[in-house]
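ok so dumb question maybe but i'm new to this and my supervisor (M.) told me to 'just get the structure for T-lymphocyte activation antigen CD86' and walked off. so i did the thing. is this what she meant?? sequence i used:
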Amino acid sequence: MTLGTMGLSNTLLVMALLLSGAASMKSQAYFNETGELPCHFTNSQNISLDELVVFWQDQNKLVLYELFRGKENPQNVHPKYKGRTSFDKDNWTLKLHNIQIKDKGSYQCFVHYKGPKGLVPMYHMSSDLSVLANFSQPEIMVTSNRTENSGIINLTCSSVQGYPEPKEMYFKLKTENSTTKYDTAMKKSQNNVTELYSVSISLSFSVPEASNVSITCVLQLESMELHSLPYNIDAHTKPPPARDPILWIAAVLIMLVILCGMVLVPFLTLRKRKKKQPGPSHECETNKVERKESEQNKKRVQYHVPERSDEAQCVNISETTSGDKSTTHF
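this is what came out, is it supposed to look like this??
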C-alpha cells in the first residue's frame, strides 16, 4: 500500500469516526444539582490517555474541562466552570456540578490523538442539556376583601421557584353533580439572578348554596401536573367572613375610651374630694389668724389691768387714809 493510499485511508477513517459521533444526545439536570455530559468514546484500540487530548466546550466555545495527555489542564478552562466539573474516566462522562438555569444549552466533547505530527481528531459528540426546577405545590388562600354574607368568595393560588415557565394555571371546582374549570390570567415573575419563575392566579365566584364544593388549583407543566390541597366548602357552612379592618379599628378605639374612663373617673372623684377638704395651707392660715386675734386680746387685757389696779390702789389708799384718820382720831 502506497503512502498516498494510507493517508487517504486514515482520512476516511477519521471522517467515519466523526460522523459516527455527530448525533446529539439529550440530557436533563435539576437546578442546584449535578448534570452529566456524556462522551461515548469506545476507545476500541485501547489508546492510552497519555496519547489523547480530551475536552468539552459549550455552545459559546468556552472550555469546561480539558484532559491533556492524561493530566487535567485548568489553564484553558473558563472561569465560570472552574471547580464545577469532574471527569468519570470509566464512563467517559463529564459531570457539571451546581447546575444553574443559564447552564442549559448545547455541549460538545472532542477526543484527539496526540501524535508526532500534532493533534489528530478521533471523536466528536454533541449533547443538549435542559435544566429543570421543581415548582412548589400550588397553595390556595382566601383573600380578606370578601363582603360578609354576600355569598362571593375570593381565592388566590400561587406556586414559586420553578423552571421552565408553566403552560397554564387554573381552578377546578367540583360539586356533587359537575366539575368546572375556571381559566384565569396567570401572573408570572422571574428572578433576575436565578431565572426561576413564580406564578399566581386569582378568582372571585359565587358559592352554591345547596351543595358541597371542593376547589383545587392545578399547575400545568410541560410533562406533568401539580395539584393543590382541596379547599372544601360545606353546604351548611358559609365561608368564613372576612375581617373588616375598619370594624377592628373601631373596636380598639372603643376599648381605649372605656379604659381611659375607668382610669380617669376615680382620679377626678378623688381630686374633687381633696378640694372640698381644707388643706394644710388653709389650716395654717386659720391658725395664724386665731393666734393674731389671741395676741390682740392679750394686749387689751394687759392694757386694762393696770387701770383696774390703780383704781383698786386708789380705793385702798382712800380706805387706808380714812382708816388712819380714824385711828388718829382715837
